[in-house]
Design goal:
alpha+beta, about 25% strand
C-alpha cells in the first residue's frame, strides 16, 4: 500500500511541477523577455530596430549616429506597445513568438514623395522580443503624430 501511495505522490508532484514550470515560462515569454540575450530590451532598442527596418523610406542616413540624431531631434516620434490587441495566441507565446508593436512617425525621403502625395508616414512595425523587426504596415499622413 505504501508503494502505491508513494508512486501516486511522485506522479502528482511531477505533474504539478510541470504545470508550474510551464506557467512560469509562459509568463516570462509573455512579458517580452529575450531568452537569447537573457534580458528585456528597452523601448529605445525596439524603436531603433524598427527604424533600421523602415530606414529605406525615412529621410535619414542608414547609420547608428543618424538614428541617434533622429531620435534626439524627434523625441515623440515613436511609441512601443508590448501587448498589442492583435498579438498572438498563447501557443505563440509559449513557443517564443512574442513581439511588440512599434509605431514610427517620420518624414519620408523626397524621392518617396510624389507630386501631391503626403510628406509624412506612420508605420506599425512588429518587433521580436529580441530585436529583429518582422514585418510592417503603414500609411501616408498629413502631419506627424506625437507619442509620450
Amino acid at each position: 500500500m505504501k508503494k502505491k501511495i508513494s508512486a501516486s505522490i511522485v506522479v502528482v508532484a511531477s505533474a504539478a511541477l510541470l504545470v508550474a514550470c510551464s506557467w512560469g515560462y509562459w509568463r516570462l515569454m509573455d512579458s517580452g523577455y529575450c531568452v537569447s540575450k537573457m534580458r528585456y530590451l528597452d523601448d529605445r532598442e525596439l524603436i531603433e530596430s524598427a527604424i533600421r527596418h523602415e530606414i529605406f523610406q525615412m529621410n535619414i542616413e542608414a547609420n547608428p549616429e543618424a538614428i541617434a540624431r533622429f531620435l534626439q531631434a524627434n523625441e515623440t516620434c515613436c511609441g512601443v506597445d508590448r501587448h498589442p490587441d492583435w498579438r498572438r495566441t498563447w501557443v505563440d507565446t509559449l513557443t517564443g513568438f512574442n513581439y511588440a508593436e512599434v509605431t514610427l512617425n517620420f518624414e519620408k525621403k523626397q524621392t518617396e514623395v510624389s507630386q501631391g502625395a503626403r510628406r509624412f508616414y506612420k508605420s506599425l512595425v512588429a518587433v521580436d522580443a529580441c530585436g529583429p523587426a518582422l514585418k510592417s504596415i503603414g500609411t501616408d499622413t498629413t502631419a506627424l503624430e506625437n507619442y509620450p
